[in-house]
Automatic annotation (TrEMBL):
SMART domains: PKS_ER (SM00829)
A Pfam family this chain is assigned to: ADH_zinc_N
Provenance organism: Orbilia oligospora
Transmembrane segments: 173-199
Coiled coil: none
Lineage, opening ranks: Eukaryota, Fungi, Dikarya, Ascomycota, Pezizomycotina
Enoyl reductase (ER) domain span: 12-345
Protein name: Enoyl reductase (ER) domain-containing protein
Keywords of this entry: Membrane, Transmembrane, Transmembrane helix
């Protein structure tokens, strides 16, 4: 048997309910041909887990453990070849299924790991059986919590920044809502690629921390004239934005169309502020594009991990707790939005083992 974390069904309407966490004992998974068994060392949260608990996410399954992000060690394999390739290695798990390489979108029915129908496991569980093709070796320069932080946020940021944003060296890019996992990965990726990065946040402290990570500057979006302030910060030899990477929605086009170059791009990977975006005629006349971007393919996941390795990128981890029983602590941090970086749960006694790997 193994311990896992699921949600418990209670009465309540979507958006008003908040399903409690429940620790359960489940059968330890058995592996099939082509699969390996991974002992999970740590799992990281994403906003989707909060949305699942609020019943604001499609396809909720009360029996599937939560969690899309995970790092672990391969403890069992289904063949001598897989044993030679993977046994004993520290690995990160892909967070989705059904999307191999198509740049436009999934080839089939796409499913994200954890808490929903489509994939039978999560990462907030002690063991996971999965195809060996869904593994990447964890970057050696990362700690266990840092490695756990990579999968879904890293993949989402990679696709938004490079596949959809087409970011290049020398570009000016605005990343909104700095402090969340995707925004911070986008910042680190863009800086590593040689772009000049500006950020927004409702916290001066978060802006200061973003500058420590390489942002050129930032503005507080709680100020009504923040877009005017940002205009004054742009380089005189390139006084416009090439790209905006946004996870808030709402008035983002209204606030930035005047700053974007002709043909500039707004990449939307989420709409946490308002699920609708106003697109004014002024943006049409400037040939501005808004491009939706969500998650990413298996191919993009490999590219992202390779980039992390090449540039020695270290994910920002805000808070780590030890043990499934303390997971609610980091959920509360995410609900309040006070984190700067990823929120991680180390599983049971594995933290000591992880430190020795």
């Amino acid at each position: 048997m193994m311990k896992a974390l699921v949600i418990e069904k209670t009465d309540g309407k979507p958006g008003q309910v908040y399903y409690p966490l429940k620790q359960v004992d489940l059968p330890k998974p058995s592996i099939r041909p082509g699969e390996v068994l991974v002992k999970i060392l740590a799992a990281a949260l994403n906003h989707r887990e909060v949305f699942i608990r609020q019943h604001l996410y499609p396809g909720i399954n009360f029996e599937t453990p939560l969690g899309a992000d995970g790092v672990g060690i391969v403890v069992e394999t289904s063949s001598p070849d897989l044993e030679h390739q993977w046994k004993g290695k520290k690995v990160i798990l892909t967070p989705g299924r059904g999307w191999e390489s198509n740049e436009d979108g999934p080839e089939g029915k796409y499913a994200i790991v954890g808490g929903t129908v489509g994939v039978s496991h999560g990462t907030l569980q002690e063991y996971v059986a999965l195809p060996a093709s869904e593994l990447e070796e964890a970057p050696g320069h990362l700690s266990i919590p840092e490695a756990a932080a990579i999968p879904l946020a890293g993949l989402t940021a990679w696709r938004a920044t490079f596949t959809k944003g087409k970011l290049r060296m020398g570009d000016n890019v605005l990343i909104t809502g700095i402090g969340g996992g995707v925004a911070l990965f986008a910042l680190q990726f863009a800086v590593a690629a040689g772009a000049t990065v500006f950020v927004t946040s409702g916290s001066e402290e978060k802006i200061a921390r973003a500058k420590e990570l390489g942002a050129a500057d930032g503005v507080n979006y709680k100020k009504e004239d923040w877009s005017k302030q940002l205009k004054g910060l742009l380089p005189k030899n390139r006084p416009y934005l090439d790209t905006v990477i946004d996870g808030a929605g709402g008035d983002i086009v209204l606030q930035t169309y005047g700053l974007l170059k002709l043909g500039g791009v707004i990449v939307s990977y989420g709409m946490t502020t308002n699920p609708k975006v106003v697109f004014p005629m002024q943006a049409v006349l400037k040939n501005i594009e808004i491009r939706g971007s969500t998650m990413g393919s298996r191919k993009e996941f490999t590219e992202m991990v390779s980039f992390v390795n090449k540039h020695g990128i270290k994910p920002v981890v805000s808070t780590t707790v030890k043990g499934l029983s303390r997971a609610d602590e980091v959920f509360e941090i995410m609900r309040k939005g006070t984190q700067f970086g990823k929120l991680v749960v180390e599983l049971g006694d594995d933290a000591g083992e992880a430190a020795r790997l």
